[in-house]
Amino acid sequence: MKLGPALSDRAGRLLDFLWSGWAGLAALSLLAAAWQAGHEAWGDFILPAPLETVGAAVGLLGDPDSLSLLLITAQRSLTGFAMAAGAGVALGLTAGYAPAVMRLARPLLTVVLGVPPIAWIVLTMMWFGTTGTTVAVAILIAATPVVFVAAAEGIATRDRELGHMAEAFGYGLLGRFLFIDLRQASRPIFPALALALGTSFKVAIMAEMLANAGGVGGALARARALLDVPQALAWVVLSVIALIVVEYGLVRPMEGELERWRRAAQPWGVKR
Amino acid sequence: MNALTLERIGHAYFGQAVLADIHLEVGRGEVVALVGPSGSGKSTLIQIAAGLVDAREGRIRRGFSRQAMIFQEPNLMPWATARENIGFALRRAGVARRDRQARIEEAAWLAELEGDDLGKYPVELSGGMRQRVAIARALAVRPDFIFFDEPFTALDVALKRRMQDLVIGAAREAHFAALFITHDLMEAIRIAHRIAVLDVRGRGIAGVRALEGGTGDRNEAEIFALRQRFLETDPLFRHIHDVDERKRR
Ligand SMILES: Nc1ncnc2c1ncn2[C@@H]1O[C@H](COP(=O)(O)OP(=O)(O)O)[C@@H](O)[C@H]1O
Ligand SMILES: [Mg+2]
Q: Which PANTHER family match (chain A) (predicted)?
């Protein structure tokens, strides 16, 4: 591929992305307006002004101690997420190829998914104490199933004719898996990964809060004890921002790169 | 040695016999058309010959070194551009990375694809264009044997003709042998050196007819006359006609 068209293609996607950002910005403005209205109705103690909260959040970011709390939580979430993603993809792909495994896994999944994450947190707390392991295991249990189901579906619903095609051209099992099946499975896997990432952050904070394991959850627990609403809100804002940064900085760009051809199918898609 | 020899091939799906006692030979550089009604086991047979399905019985001897296949559907990877699709098998065929672009261009030229189309994704191409990409993908590996499984059935008449001419041209240029499955007798006569007819229920090859002259040597009038003669006077082709009747019903 020549550099020029490749670059302009990428720039086009970036513009698209920024354009879609407008909608997001509009929604955020709406939220801020509602928030401000709530603040004016109920006062500072119940709901601090959005600007004030953002100020507090920025203040937290400037403070090395708070920053390290945020980093601890981010690191725990990402570790748990990586484990859940790895386990979910590996097990899901296997189940996708083996219908018997899938039949066995379905009822188990229903059970696992039926248990609220908070219950897992309580259990893991009792099993592993108030350590980082508790957080990681809780995330693993809560976030793996979605990835598993997506990966299994991706394989089970793949276009088998493409596999035959590859085989007719001499590709063996590994080649077909790498160049055909994995590529098809990635389509449902990416949205599931985005979902699992969100779950990881939420579960991490919940687990930290309950287990008093430090991080953002610990800070939230302290803010609650002190009835410090601005502080609590500032932490919430920061953790949402952290999630957005990871999702739109990592997961979505990777997905966009893989799903480039889909834009071509749209009437306003890439025309070269 | 023949390019392909099938001996006593038999197959069954779930205990249901589909093929039995099939003998068929394809010589080097020879194009053999295999005709037979729908459901007689043609696809099964070509998949066995191409190594996609393991036959229950019989022996396959392959005297070629590199195979390619063109299916009824283009079977393109939707996430890859035409260029990437054409180049798909080059890695497996052991073509060095630096030579792949040239191979792709060459194959695209043989399949009469324009440079513009090579950057497009399959969704942006018409049905005929997609099948051209599939043909180019097959030609790119410079095969000495190509399996065709009713490759043009889904195309309209005019397009079909152009695709057939393309295959005839490519066969002359690239000297591959081929097993060409079709249920269109005109197509078989136009493209093949020999026509084999599969038994209605897949019990052996009912018969083989050799056509004089090379691939593509016959003009339209000759092809049509030959088809009429086959259908009206040759008992071997009675069932082909049956299929047409069945289809119309
Ligand atoms: N994968 C399969 N599993 C079970 N039965 C099959 C399969 N493929 C084909 N068949 C059956 O085998 C018979 C021959 O099919 P096929 O080889 O596709 O015939 P043709 O290509 O001549 O139409 C048909 O009755 C079809 O239903
Ligand atoms: Mg068929």
A: ABC TRANSPORTER PERMEASE PROTEIN MJ0413-RELATED (PTHR30151:SF0), ALKANE SULFONATE ABC TRANSPORTER-RELATED, MEMBRANE SUBUNIT (PTHR30151)
Residue whose pair of structure tokens reads 């189901």 in the numeric block: A149
**Chain A interface, best mutation among B92, B144, B146, B149, by max A CB count within 10 A:** B92
Q: Which helix (H) or strand (E) holds B181?
A: strand B177-182
Question: What is the ipTM metric for this complex?
Answer: 0.90
Give the tens place of pLDDT for each residue, B191-228.
999 999 999 888 999 999 998 877 777 888 888 999 99
Interatomic CA distance for residues A175 and A189, integer angstroms: 20
Q: Could you tell me the residue ranges of all domains in chain A?
A: 53-261
User: What separation in angstroms does the CA of B24 have from each of A221, B34, B195?
Assistant: 79, 10, 11
Q: Which residues line ligand 1 (CB under 6 A)?
A: B 13, 18, 36, 38-44
Distance A161 CA to ligand 2 centre (A): 13
Rounded Cα distance between A183 and A159, Å, is: 11
Q: Phi and psi dihedrals of A116, rounded to 5?
A: -65, 145
Residues of chain A with pLDDT under 70: 1-6, 266-272
What are B95-127's pLDDT values in tens digits? 999 999 999 999 999 898 988 999 999 999 999
Which of A167, A180, A272 is opposite residue B52, by nearest beta carbon? A167
Which ligand 1 atom sits nearest the alpha carbon of residue B198? 22
User: B121 and A272: CB-CB below 8 Å?
Assistant: no
Contacts of B80 (CB under 8 A, 6+ apart): A261, B88, B121, B122
Q: What is the DSSP string of A194-221?
A: HHHHHHHHHHHHHHHHHHT-SHHHHHHH
Task: Give the percent of chain B with pLDDT over 70.
Answer: 96
The residue-averaged pLDDT of B227-246 equals: 75
How many angstroms away from the CA of A170 is the closest CA of chain B? 7
The minimal CB distance from A168 to the residues B50, B73, B79 is found for B50
**From atom 6 of ligand 1, which residue's Cα is the shortest distance away?**
B13
Ligand 2 centroid from CA B92, angstroms: 26
* Chain B residues in contact with A258 (beta carbon < 8 A): 79
Give the number of other Cβ atoms within 10 Å of residue A82's Cβ: 14
Fold of A53-261: MetI-like fold (1.10.3720)
pTM as predicted: 0.85
Q: Which residue has the higher pLDDT, B183 or B136?
A: B136
Of the ligands numbered here, which is closest to the C-alpha atom of B36? Answer: 1
